């Protein structure tokens, strides 16, 4: 859905020969598990991106996945079989992410936990894309 949104709002030419539905079908070949039916008009009801002021919120879910995967990567890097190392990372997580909560800017909380800005690499790895 994000790829469709980006294409429709950045590169799609409404005066061109391709209809929005044809673009949807083109992208479905790459991203969808099952192809849409020929008469599918999902775009007419996809309000998450196109109406209701939710578009930025839609992408926040993906950002949450980035943060989650990167946080879990801290435990992986410590060694999931190393109980003491996992306990230390868990304490650091508790003392930063859980303890600071909404009283500190989220980017500062993440940096306090990981010692750096978030990276999309763990999410790509966990998703089998890297």
TrEMBL record:
<keyword id="KW-0862">Zinc</keyword>
<keyword id="KW-0482">Metalloprotease</keyword>
<keyword id="KW-0645">Protease</keyword>
<dbReference type="Pfam" id="PF01432">
    <property type="entry name" value="Peptidase_M3"/>
</dbReference>
<dbReference type="GO" id="GO:0006508">
    <property type="term" value="P:proteolysis"/>
</dbReference>
<dbReference type="GO" id="GO:0046872">
    <property type="term" value="F:metal ion binding"/>
</dbReference>
<feature type="domain" description="Peptidase M3A/M3B catalytic">
    <location>
        <begin position="1"/>
        <end position="128"/>
    </location>
</feature>
<keyword id="KW-0378">Hydrolase</keyword>
<dbReference type="GO" id="GO:0006518">
    <property type="term" value="P:peptide metabolic process"/>
</dbReference>
<comment type="similarity">
    <text>Belongs to the peptidase M3 family.</text>
</comment>
<protein>
    <recommendedName>
        <fullName>Peptidase M3A/M3B catalytic domain-containing protein</fullName>
    </recommendedName>
</protein>
<dbReference type="InterPro" id="IPR001567">
    <property type="entry name" value="Pept_M3A_M3B_dom"/>
</dbReference>
<dbReference type="GO" id="GO:0004222">
    <property type="term" value="F:metalloendopeptidase activity"/>
</dbReference>
<dbReference type="InterPro" id="IPR045090">
    <property type="entry name" value="Pept_M3A_M3B"/>
</dbReference>
<dbReference type="InterPro" id="IPR024077">
    <property type="entry name" value="Neurolysin/TOP_dom2"/>
</dbReference>
<keyword id="KW-0479">Metal-binding</keyword>
